[in-house]
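Run log, item B.
One chain of 367 residues. Sequence copied directly from the ordering sheet:
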Amino acid sequence: MRILVLNWRDLAHPAAGGAEVYTEQVLRRWVAAGHQVTLFAASVAGRPAVEMADGYRVIRAGNRFTVYREARRWWERCGRGSFDVVIDETNTVPFLAHEWVDDGARTVALVHQTCEEIWHHNAPPLVAHLGRHALEPRWLHRLASSPVLAVSESTRDALARFGARDVTVVPEGFEPPSQSRLSPKEDRPTVVFCGRMVSYKRPWDVLRAVQNAHRELPGLQLWMIGGGPLLGKLRRARPDGVEFFGRVSEAVKHDLMARAHAHVSTSVREGWGLVVTEAAALGTPTIAYDVPGLRDSTLAAGGVVVPPSPDALARWMVDLLPAWQSQSFEPLPYGGAHSWDEVADRLLDAVLTQARVPAVSVGLVAA
């Protein structure tokens, strides 16, 4: 089968994140199964406009704002008649491929998360208001007429509020850390936060919660892992018992996460929250804000969700950490997610079902 995936970034982009990891893991498995795969994404400085990556073709044009227009132009020049299915991988702004793919190829959207509250953390007030209350609702309402795949129940529920009715939930993928032996837990009650130091991850909430919990857990320590624009300010405001590590290697990150008694996650919303899955695979349960995405991953991994406030987070730390210090949590290899092999198979099945690709098209390339 001939598959075109539209995404605003590919894995070579300096701002690539979890959605791009998901894409790369799936596409290389589809290629290995015999499918012809092309990924269209924005240009990357120092990388060619066309190259092969893990067996699939990457075509780059435009920037974060113009990649959507460039995808349509490329389709009109080169894409029409060359694909059986087009996957519109939506990260806030959809390509709306179902409105301009006009040659009989089937289209389906893949949505990791909606933006909503995040607008007010990532944009100036007027732009954020316009984005949340006008642009995103309009984009998603138009997308709703296309078959849609979502990576969590929370994302499906959010899309339903914008009018989507034909939504199928597909699994999130994860590759367990390759550690032969986990590090022993700390003697002191220890909490770890792992994520970019940006507003929508709410790292300030973590600091305030630990300050509050410290009154009843005087030995409490907090490890903050991750870089980002707020790191300097957070470091300067560092209360007692808090250590900032910045960006670290995967080995160091896994060691710190395994040694902690609890992982905390305080984002405004997520598509899933792979860091929760990662912590569970290292034997560390999560206390997370009860928000879309985090509630999916945290409950699937056996953690606890709490009201989204520093006071509630502090209260649950005080209540849970003494007990969690005295018990051992078995690592959950996939922590509520699935192997990438299974994700690739199930996603392709969902694409074929939702896009209603004829059996004769599936057989164009041996799979």
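Observations after the first pass:
- The radius of gyration is 21 Å.
- The chain has two domains: 2-173+338-362, 190-325.
Flagged for discussion on Thursday.
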